[in-house]
């Protein structure tokens, strides 16, 4: 029954499309392949629709799935906009030549450090790498000074991560850019020996909170998000920021781009302008995502350690390599 119904709906939609022509395209609004957290993208979409009347359909998935899907679909992709959690997925789509240039006035809303020099995608938010640790298990003087320390045999069996996730893979891509292939391969090999794998950063934090493991490498907002709710999965957790331009102080840029094949380029560009502008960036300050705002003059949630105080290493987000990272992680037995 379900199959028949969807066939019928599909046929009806095609029929209306044929009759209504261009008007139908406008009413349909834009399709966003969204790899950012669903709740954040939903707030952006609703704010944009409220301001412009343009409808947004969100299709939710992950960074690597969607970037590979877009490349596979090529110019036939139904997506108008692609939003990611991390930059490597943007780089993959850009390398395939599938992005249109982002409008100059949108690029002008974001500092150069948070956009592609090519003009093909723009930063929409940012997140910091942290070492989330159990405060009953670790004292501050026992914390790792560097992400690289976690490869030391003394850390065997004591830390966790979610290697299958795009968040952790972005951290590895930064490590690769900063320290090179040989050092990264060595670190990943040691990681395989030392760490415990969990699926998802929230699960890592839960395990840390429960004392199953002493600490984990995740992004900062998982902690703040939980604290803003009941705090039940983070009451025994504190965040350690590596700072000092350490690879573990990597700040990852979430990106937005307009597909060159978009049938609604004006509306798609307007969406990115909204997300990087006052309305979209205020969602980051006032909403529940706890990610950093990146727009010029935009403020982040006051509960966060200010972005400028994170002493993040200088990483070129536009050359982060997702393929090399998954190859190295596969070779190390992590994927
Ligand atoms: Fe995430």
CATH class of the largest domain: Alpha Beta
The CATH architecture classification of the largest domain is 3-Layer(aba) Sandwich
- Give a short account of the largest sheet: 10 strands, mixed
Q: According to CATH, what is the topology of the largest domain?
A: D-Maltodextrin-Binding Protein, domain 2
Helical percent range? 40-55%
- The SSE order reads HHEHEHEHEHEEHHEHEHEEHHH
Head-to-tail CA distance between termini: 39 Å
Low-confidence spans: 1-26
The share of residues in extended strands comes to: 15-25%
Count of discrete domains: 2
Bound molecules: fe (ii) ion
Rg of Cα set: 21 Å
Mean pLDDT: 93
| Coarse shape | globular
Number of helices: 13
Question: Would you write up a description of this structure?
Answer:
The two termini are 39 Å apart. The longest helix has 19 residues, at 2-20. 42% of the residues lie in helices and 16% in strands. Helix 7 crosses helix 13 (322-331). Strands 1, 2, 3, 4, 5, 6, 7, 8, 9 and 10 form a ten-stranded mixed beta sheet that branches. It is built from 13 helices and ten strands. With 335 residues, the chain is of the alpha/beta class. It is globular, with a radius of gyration of 21 Å. It folds into two domains: 5-126 and 251-305, Periplasmic binding protein-like II (D-Maltodextrin-Binding Protein, domain 2, 3-Layer(aba) Sandwich); 127-248 and 321-331, 3-Layer(aba) Sandwich (D-Maltodextrin-Binding Protein, domain 2), CATH 3.40.190.
List the helices and strands and how they pair.
Blueprint: H1 2-20, H2 22-28, E1 30-34, H3 38-52, E2 56-60, H4 63-73, E3 81-83, H5 87-95, E4 99-100, H6 104-107, E5 122-134, E6 159-161, H7 166-179, H8 181-194, E7 195-197, H9 201-210, E8 215-219, H10 221-228, E9 237-240, E10 251-259, H11 265-276, H12 278-286, H13 322-331
Parallel strand pairs: 1-2, 1-3, 6-7, 6-8
Antiparallel strand pairs: 3-10, 4-10, 5-8, 5-9, 5-10
Helix pairs in contact: 3-12, 4-5, 7-8, 7-13
Bound molecules: fe (ii) ion (FE2).
């Amino acid at each position: 029954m379900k199959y028949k119904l969807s066939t019928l709906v599909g046929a009806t939609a095609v029929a209306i499309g044929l009759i209504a022509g261009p008007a139908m395209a406008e009413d349909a609004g834009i399709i966003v392949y969204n790899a950012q957290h669903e709740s954040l993208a939903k707030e952006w979409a609703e704010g944009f629709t409220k301001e412009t009347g343009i409808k947004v359909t969100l299709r939710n998935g992950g960074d690597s799935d969607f970037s590979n899907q877009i490349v596979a679909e090529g110019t036939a992709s139904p997506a108008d906009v692609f939003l990611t959690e991390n930059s490597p997925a943007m780089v993959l789509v850009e390398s395939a030549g599938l992005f249109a240039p982002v409008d100059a006035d949108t690029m002008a809303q974001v500092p150069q450090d948070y956009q592609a020099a090519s003009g093909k995608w723009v930063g929409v938010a940012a997140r910091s790498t942290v070492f989330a640790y159990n405060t009953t298990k670790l004292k501050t003087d026992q914390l790792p000074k560097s992400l690289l320390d976690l490869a030391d045999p003394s850390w065997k069996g004591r830390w966790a991560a979610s290697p299958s996730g795009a968040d952790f893979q972005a951290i590895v891509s930064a490590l690769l850019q900063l320290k090179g292939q040989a050092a990264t391969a060595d670190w990943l090999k040691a990681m395989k020996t030392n760490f415990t794998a969990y699926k998802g950063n929230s699960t890592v934090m839960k395990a840390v909170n429960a004392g199953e493991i002493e600490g984990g490498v995740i992004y900062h907002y998982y902690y703040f998000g939980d604290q803003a709710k009941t705090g039940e999965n983070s009451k025994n957790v504190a965040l350690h920021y590596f700072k000092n331009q350490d690879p573990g102080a990597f700040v990852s840029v979430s990106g937005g781009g307009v597909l060159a094949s978009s049938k609604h380029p004006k509306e798609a560009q307007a969406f990115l302008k909204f997300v990087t502008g006052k309305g979209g960036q205020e969602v980051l300050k006032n909403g529940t995502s706890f990610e950093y705002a990146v727009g010029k003059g935009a403020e982040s949630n006051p509960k966060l350690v200010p972005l400028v105080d994170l002493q993040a290493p200088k990483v070129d987000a536009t050359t982060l390599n997702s393929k090399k990272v998954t190859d190295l992680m596969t070779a190390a037995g992590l994927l």
